[in-house]
TrEMBL record:
Record-annotated ENPP1-3/EXOG-like endonuclease/phosphodiesterase domain positions: 72-265
Cofactor(s) the protein needs: Mg(2+)
Residue numbers annotated as active site: H134
Coiled coil: none
Organism per entry: Leyella lascolaii
GO terms of molecular function: endonuclease activity; hydrolase activity; metal ion binding; nucleic acid binding
Family per record: Belongs to the DNA/RNA non-specific endonuclease family.
The protein, known as: Endonuclease
PANTHER family hit by this protein: ENDONUCLEASE G, MITOCHONDRIAL (PTHR13966:SF5), ENDONUCLEASE RELATED (PTHR13966)
Family matches, as CDD domains: NUC (cd00091)
Catalytic class of the enzyme: hydrolase
């Protein structure tokens, strides 16, 4: 397991929004796919497996946000030691990943000893009124017992409203698995949203309670398309389309740049609109 502290952002290959691409955009996207498949060796996990299977890169967090990069078997996360939360979690989901034989039976939420204390533990959530909300869901890690185990580390978890976690957020996770099966593979980045001002905390380690959550999903097969979602941290019980946002809006709210390494023409094409119909 390799950890690297970053206080400046690194570009990430994970996007939002669906578009109809011109030939120029398709050429740029093809170049991007080739670059992703030529990932450097230092993006490997302890097991020697390339993170995400084909060199998933990283999101650019603001310089002022503490970030410790943790490379796991099935995902990469940027951990914030101030909030005791991930800034973002990114992973590559294939059709095969959704069909594995491993499940969450016998898995326990666990303190992550790869990050400095104080850090979140199970007691912080006890009687807090919040669920232990996965960012990279357990259901996306059925392909590996170790990946499944690591998905229960608290560096992949946020305090989440029970109604959201078990309702609309769970529905979104299921939708992503359906898209991966239909399209072959997708890239996903998600994480908490913290608005300016004071925040509620839980437990003796003062784990910050997010105001909302974002999720962005990218498919590079055929015409590149992507879409973004923002969920307030409360029980919404609304249609998936009500949560759709453009990447411009997700970036504005989070301060995260999802396109630092994307060619300008692709970036312009994918940031300006979002259409759920392109996915369903």
């Amino acid at each position: 397991m390799r950890t690297v502290a970053f206080y400046t952002g690194i570009a990430l290959f994970a996007l939002t929004l669906s578009v109809s691409c011109s030939d120029s955009v398709r050429r740029s996207a093809a170049m991007l796919r080739a670059a992703a498949n030529a990932a450097p060796a230092d993006t490997r996990t302890e097991s020697g497996q390339t993170v995400g299977g084909d060199g998933l890169l990283f999101a650019a967090t603001p310089d002022t946000v503490p970030s410790i990069i943790l490379e796991r078997e099935g995902y990469v996360t940027s951990y914030n030691k101030r909030t005791r939360l991930p800034n973002w979690v990114a992973w590559h989901l294939t059709a095969g990943h959704t069909k594995g034989s491993h499940n969450r039976r016998g898995m326990d939420f666990a303190e992550d000893e790869d990050v400095p204390a104080p850090r979140a533990d199970d007691w912080d959530y006890y009687n807090s009124g919040y669920d232990r909300g996965h960012m990279c869901p357990a259901g996306d890690n059925k392909w590996s017992r170790e990946a499944m185990r690591q998905s229960f580390l608290f560096t992949n978890i946020c305090p989440q409203d029970p109604g959201l976690n078990r309702g609309d957020w769970n529905e979104m996770e299921n939708a992503c698995r359906s898209w991966a099966r239909e399209k072959g593979d997708i890239y996903i980045v998600c994480g908490p949203i913290l608005h300016k001002g004071r925040h509620k905390t839980i437990g003796k380690h003062k784990v910050v309670v997010p105001d909302a959550f974002f999720k962005v999903v990218l498919c590079m097969n055929g015409n590149p398309k992507a879409i973004g979602f923002i969920y307030k941290n409360r029980d919404g019980n609304r249609a998936k389309g009500d949560y759709v946002n453009t990447v411009d809006e997700v970036e504005r709210i989070t301060g995260i740049d999802f396109f630092a390494s994307i060619p300008d023409d692709v970036e312009r094409a994918v940031e300006s609109s979002a259409d759920l119909d392109d996915w369903e």
